[in-house]
């Protein structure tokens, strides 16, 4: 059976791992574990193709422990029992458990005692955020290590190694790889070494030798053969929420170019509903009274986008993002509400003043409901001095105006005048 190049090029030892120097470099945590032969169970989390399986196999190769691979979603408890029996006989087994976030309670309960006694060294692999997706019982018994996307330099190093390796690589093939083709392999795969290696192998195997007996790989050939990984993300994955967060923080920070970049990633992922919802949140949470008209325009843009659908929806969405990004920012209104809510949660409520209570029923006046209430519209200024807050909160101040936009500056001025009159 043919094994893909990415499988064949998996590192045999820690020193052969490409990238991840923060984990396997000299003096770093996994390197120290291997050198001291003091391995502990761990969870490796990060994007696909970044070396989680490679790290696990390299740890096993560097320690000479038995190495087994299972999938938490598809393999059964019986498969785990077989690994456990092997561990009893051999002493220690390193178990790479892919999609560890999908480990159900039955399998988890079986694994836990074996992790406790050290017979099984679990290396869980996942693309999900372990702090959100991994069961606390497993998480508390493992160390969590983030595996980061490989750099272009990392991928180029691995590709050059594969081209020279005569044992398991492509070193026996007369490959001539153009510089632009190599550059495309390192960039277009977005840090996914597996995609880069398998794309290279497809190009080599499917390209005929030229008159000089060489397999000449041009940019056009690599573009054709590379199974290009989407530069976006899984809409259900952890990275999706990172992009949403980055979009809001970029708009909040008034960086138009970064905001449009993250919008483009969400548009490319086709997630119209999330974009529309998030822009509405941003309009009221981050811009707020700094530019209320921008919030109204965002509602209109979202409505238009929902009616248009993609690809045209990107047009009103881009308008909204630029508008929100360059608008004055103010979170004063919802911060004021949160401050009021905090008082309520602490029991600071108090009785409603009698003159504010409902008096639209027979006998209300006998209970002093609504008596001595002054109607603000009767005043030429639009307000009349009277108490509105309960007695115990009479001096409470929740709203602190921001002076970032002309609209709230005007509100702040009126707020100041009213407070002066009422004090």
Architecture of the largest domain, according to CATH? 3-Layer(aba) Sandwich
* Dominant shape: elongated
Uncertain parts: none
Q: Order of strands side by side in the largest beta sheet?
A: 2-3-4-1-5
User: What is the number of domains?
Assistant: 4
Give the class-level CATH name of the largest domain: Alpha Beta
Oligomer: single chain
According to CATH, what is the topology of the largest domain?
Rossmann fold
CATH superfamily of the largest domain: P-loop containing nucleotide triphosphate hydrolases
Q: What are the secondary-structure elements, in order, as H or E?
A: HHHEHEHEHEHHEHEHHEHHHHHHHH
Helix count, per DSSP?
A: 19
What share of the residues lie within helices?
40-55%
Give the N-to-C terminal Cα separation: 86 Å
Provide an overview of this structure:
The structure is a single chain. The chain is an alpha/beta fold. It folds into four domains: 20-146, Rossmann fold (3-Layer(aba) Sandwich); 152-225, Helicase, Ruva Protein, domain 3 (Orthogonal Bundle), CATH 1.10.8.60; 238-326, Zinc Finger, Delta Prime, domain 3 (Up-down Bundle); 349-422, DNA polymerase III clamp loader subunits, C-terminal domain (post-AAA+ oligomerization domain-like). It has 19 helices and seven strands. The chain has helices at 5-8, 21-24, 29-36, 52-63, 77-90, 105-117, 130-133, 136-139, 152-164, 179-188, 193-206, 219-225, 238-252, 256-268, 272-287, 292-308, 314-326, 332-345, 406-422; strands spanning 42-45, 66-71, 93-98, 120-126, 143-146, 175-177, 215-217. The strands form two sheets. It has a five-stranded parallel beta sheet, sandwiched between helices. Strands 6-7 form a two-stranded parallel sheet. α5 (77-90) links the parallel β2 (66-71) and β3 (93-98). α15 (272-287) runs antiparallel to α16. The longest helix is centred in the last third of the chain and has 17 residues, at 292-308. It starts with a helix and ends with a helix.
